[in-house]
């Protein structure tokens, strides 16, 4: 089992360390961990946010555990040198087009939701975010207009193949859950979204057992806080999925709790190759203080065992240990408590 570990910047190394401890505590056969540089640290050491050595390491691995990238000191760099290009480059190069971001209520945590506890109690949803297209990867630039002022532009585009493959994946995910799929777009305004809606509607014919609903993204943002329990699977594009998943995290209680899996088509000897990371970033405001909640990264390691290694039992063990730690009142600063990063890791390890 070859796992490439890319801790990255800010709290990335802090939270990744705890997830690695959890992996090492399990009895995994022939576990080999490789560590590589990504983000601002890679830029400082190698002059590039995603060095070739790192990319090679990812390609040679069965799965990647990713911390976070981003550093305010790099905000002035040319775009291709910025830390964020590391994660975008990995997603593109490795063909990771499907980003699964589950959001589920934790027993005892309802009071930490930004919503009223009775509204937060029933959250059990999965956001399926397309990860290789949209405005993220379209042509972009800054140009001079005739009157001399600058104009920034980013092209939003989806080819129907890109929509079709993520739609199939989302329908299959819904089949394995409650059979309800909400496709989120802005088809009342955007051509990209009209095509998205048309193609998702075509794919629906293959899944008569799944109930499909189309929803505009502004309404979806509202419904997500009005009644998040109404959602089962949400499928959406790269940008809308990015925004809605941060929002979903506060419906559950904290961005320090939400894990993700980024999958493509490559199969390994064990399962589907994937990259696993918390949905949060490098949190420069708390970096280096041992205050970050590592649960999102630990839960990402659980998703790795499930999707890339076929080890459902180990995945469920980790998830149960995290859930019990939370039920027992283990709380990081993000949840109003004072448990530090290492103490939260200890609490999860004890419950494994
Ligand atoms: P962020 O997610 O890093 O932080 C937002 C807020 O949430 C901050 O107040 C932070 O302290 C808090 N937070 C985040 N994770 C936490 C955790 N595990 N425990 C406790 N609190 C936590 O978002 P941001 O501040 O907008 O971005 C900071 C940097 O991270 C930027 O450079 C951004 O580009 C980058 N970023 C990277 C990724 C990634 O690597 N995949 C994801 C998002 C943002
Ligand atoms: C995420 C992040 C990234 C994204 C950034 C850092 C490129 O916000 O993983 O959610 O927008 O996808
Ligand atoms: Mn994000």
UniProtKB/TrEMBL annotation:
The free-text cofactor remark is: Binds 1 Mg(2+) or Mn(2+) ion per subunit.
Major place of residence: cytoplasm
Which positions fall inside the Isopropylmalate dehydrogenase-like domain? Answer: 2-348
Part of which pathway? Amino-acid biosynthesis; L-leucine biosynthesis; L-leucine from 3-methyl-2-oxobutanoate: step 3/4
Q: Where in the cell is it found?
A: Cytoplasm
Q: Which GO terms describe its molecular function?
A: 3-isopropylmalate dehydrogenase activity
Q: Which UniProt keywords apply?
A: Amino-acid biosynthesis, Branched-chain amino acid biosynthesis, Cytoplasm, Leucine biosynthesis, Magnesium, Manganese, Metal-binding, NAD, Oxidoreductase
What reaction does this catalyse?
(2R,3S)-3-isopropylmalate + NAD(+) = 4-methyl-2-oxopentanoate + CO2 + NADH
Q: Which domain of life is it from?
A: Bacteria
Query: Sorted alphabetically, which InterPro entries does this protein's record hold?
Result: IsoCit/isopropylmalate_DH_CS, IsoPropMal-DH-like_dom, Isopropylmalate_DH
Residues bound to Mg(2+) are 218, 242, 246
Q: Which family does it belong to?
A: Belongs to the isocitrate and isopropylmalate dehydrogenases family. LeuB type 1 subfamily.
The record's subunit annotation is: Homodimer.
HAMAP family the UniProt entry points to: LeuB_type1
PANTHER family assigned: 3-ISOPROPYLMALATE DEHYDROGENASE (PTHR42979:SF1)
Q: What is this protein called?
A: 3-isopropylmalate dehydrogenase
